[in-house]
Specification:
Layout (H helix, E strand, L loop, with lengths): L1 H11 L6 H6 L4 H10 L13 H6 L2 H18 L6 E10 L27 E9 L8 E4 L6 H4 L8 E4 L7 H15 L7 E5 L8 H9 L2 E5 L5 H4 L1 H5 L1 H18 L10 H12 L2 H10 L38 H10 L6 H5 L29 H4 L25 H25 L1 E3 L5 E3 L3 H4 L7 H18 L5 H5 L15 E6 L7 E7 L9 E6 L1 E2 L7 E3 L6 E5 L3 E4 L14 E3 L11
GO molecular function, one term: DNA binding
Protein name: DDE-1 domain-containing protein
Pfam families: DDE_1
Length: about 600
């Protein structure tokens, strides 16, 4: 691309080019080699994949909103560097990223052992302070019950362990994280602190906001899809952390031949990597590079907003057709604080695909004068594409930068939460569910069902109910399946024993994790930590809640780590032709059932 651009630039400016350039319509390899030698500051780089949302969301408008709210909080509470914190989650798996090794040329498939093809996810919550301190991390393990003796074995004192079947952060677990944060920072109404985080929905529950407000925590969320630029943890801590973690896990695998790393080995490895990565130098560099502390509104140059150039549109309520998202007051502040500030049009004209910023091509791009003919610029040869105007408002849910603990934002979040609860109740009412004596929820038969001579089946009732619920989901983009799952029956909190129906997760050699329903036919063997299980199969006509035993008995030994949780007792089938089927009042959404 760069060689062809050099040829087009030469032809457009009537520069004599060699005949091979005209034949190939491209500059030669020797020219590119010489160009790189003459400009030693340039080198070939592998591009880092960046989503379109991240590329376009980091613009002057979003940055200006964040910096305005950050400045407002700093001035309102007179916060020092020891009162400014950043929180974020990152994930680690039991399969390490392998390092590069020296091998003989021509050798193929140079391999090294890993625990399995696909690892289990453990979420780590990191919290750092602008003065260079780091709090002990929190871990979210992919289990139903928390086993501190095994999961936190080898972890330093002060670390917090949590569990969830998916291993992801949830609203209930985030409340425990805030309690962990308060116990280490000693914040209060008299000693307020600022906590900067992203606007994930697990961070914005009403209980978490109320707890933060009661304990003097000011919550400030980042603009959506800008954490790669504005979050100190992402800028300077989590990169080294992942490197040190992979090195530690790789060394563990080499020191324990024939053993697989499990989630019970992760806490000490992740804690050690956190101690090495969360150093005062790295932490302060992260806060400084994002302009959080010291507070600096001119920390980003116009080159940093180049990715958003193609989607820059005029503000809806603005009469000025400006291609920059920067507000006038923000631009004046930047000009006042940064003497090297450039107008967007000046820096945009210097953006050349394939050629670094600020480096002139082979032919000088000097401005036209009366003595020298006008030069055709590179942007005229290959103009930057611009996205078309939006046709309408997007229905998708989008967060925003806000001070969550302020009363207006808190009231808005409460209103949305009440609206979701109301929608869930309306769906439940439309589903016309009633409770049997044993507490099992079942749809009440309608008059139309009774007119069929009693031939309607439980499976048809369930299918009709779930179709009605799916139709309700599609009506509103603000209603998520998770909202309905929260009111469904969850796992039974008990130790698995003989006769229980359990949900089992199996990691195949290839592909994603699959899940089965099985009945325990024996208690756990203390020697091998294994259960004897008889597997059920999901029926083809059901929506994931109806299972039956296959004609050929499928029994196997299952390690206790693969047992995700105990399911509620199945609903008995009254009809003779449906005997042998097991229907569970459990939300299997999100599980790859077989």
């Amino acid at each position: 691309m760069t060689r062809r651009l050099a040829y087009e630039y030469g032809i457009a400016n009537k520069v004599n080019v060699p005949d091979p350039w005209k034949r190939d319509k491209s500059a030669g390899k020797d020219w590119l080699t010489g160009f790189l030698e003459r400009h030693s500051q340039l080198s070939l780089r592998t591009l880092e994949a960046t989503s379109l949302a991240r590329m376009t969301s980091f613009n002057r408008t979003n940055l200006g909103v964040f910096q305005k709210k950050l400045e407002e909080v700093l001035l309102r509470y007179q916060l020092t560097q020891s009162c400014i914190y950043n929180l974020d989650e990152t994930g680690c798996t039991t399969v390490q990223k392998l390092p590069k090794v020296i091998a003989q040329k021509g050798s193929h498939q140079v391999g090294q052992v890993t625990s399995r093809e696909r690892g289990e996810l453990i979420t780590m919550v990191g919290i750092i302070c602008a003065n260079g301190n780091a709090l002990p991390p929190c871990f979210v393990f992919p289990r139903v019950r928390f086993d501190e003796a095994r999961m936190m074995k080898g972890a330093p004192l002060g670390c917090k362990g949590l569990v969830h079947p998916s291993g992801w952060m949830t609203s209930s677990n985030f409340l425990y994280v805030l309690q962990h944060f308060v116990s280490h920072t000693r914040c209060s109404q008299e000693h307020k602190v600022l906590l900067i985080m992203d606007n994930h929905k697990s961070h914005l529950s009403i209980d978490a906001i109320n707890y933060a407000k009661e304990n003097g925590i000011v919550l400030l969320t980042l603009p959506p899809h800008t954490s790669n630029k504005l979050q100190p943890l992402d800028k300077s801590v989590y990169g080294p952390f992942k490197t040190f973690f992979n090195q530690g896990l790789n060394a563990w695998m080499l020191q324990h031949p024939g053993q697989c790393a499990t989630i019970y080995d992760m806490a000490p490895l992740m804690s050690s990597a956190w101690d090495r990565a969360a150093t005062p130098v790295n932490i302060k560099a992260g806060f400084r590079s994002t302009g959080v502390h010291p507070f600096d509104i001119g920390v980003f140059s116009e080159e940093d907003f180049g990715g958003a150039f193609v989607t820059d549109r005029p503000m809806a309520n603005s009469s000025q057709q400006s291609t920059s998202h920067e507000p006038d007051h923000a631009r004046q502040q930047v000009q006042a604080t940064s003497p090297d500030y450039e107008h967007p049009s000046e820096s945009q004209s210097a953006m050349v695909p394939g050629i670094a910023m600020g480096v002139s091509p082979e032919v000088s791009m000097s401005t036209s004068t009366s003595e020298q003919p006008r030069r055709v610029s590179v942007e005229e040869i290959r103009p930057f594409p611009k996205a078309a105007a939006r046709k309408g408002n997007s229905r998708g849910r989008r967060g925003k930068c806000m001070i969550v603990t302020d009363t207006p934002e808190k009231a808005e979040i409460e209103m949305k939460a009440k609206s979701k609860i109301s929608k869930v109740k309306q769906v439940k009412k439309r589903l016309n569910l009633t409770a049997d004596e044993d507490g099992t929820k079942r749809r009440r038969p309608t008059k139309k069902d009774k007119d069929k001579d009693g031939s309607s089946s439980e499976e048809e009732d369930i299918l009709q109910s779930e179709k009605l619920l799916a139709a309700e989901f599609n009506k509103s983009s603000d209603f998520s399946e998770e909202d309905f799952d929260n009111v469904d029956i969850d796992f039974v909190d008990k130790v698995p024993e003989e006769g229980d129906f359990v949900l089992i997760g199996i990691d195949p050699l290839k592909g994603s994790k699959v899940h089965y329903v099985g009945q325990l036919i024996s208690d756990m063997d203390d020697d091998d930590d294994e259960f004897q299980v008889s597997y059920l199969r999901k029926t083809m006509k059901s929506q994931g809640n109806c299972f039956l035993f296959p004609n050929t008995t499928d029994e196997a030994s299952v390690h206790k780590d693969n047992v995700i949780g105990v399911l509620p007792k199945p609903i008995p089938q009254s009809m003779k032709r449906r005997q042998g089927y097991y229907n569970f009042s459990f939300g299997f959404a999100g599980y790859n059932m077989r």
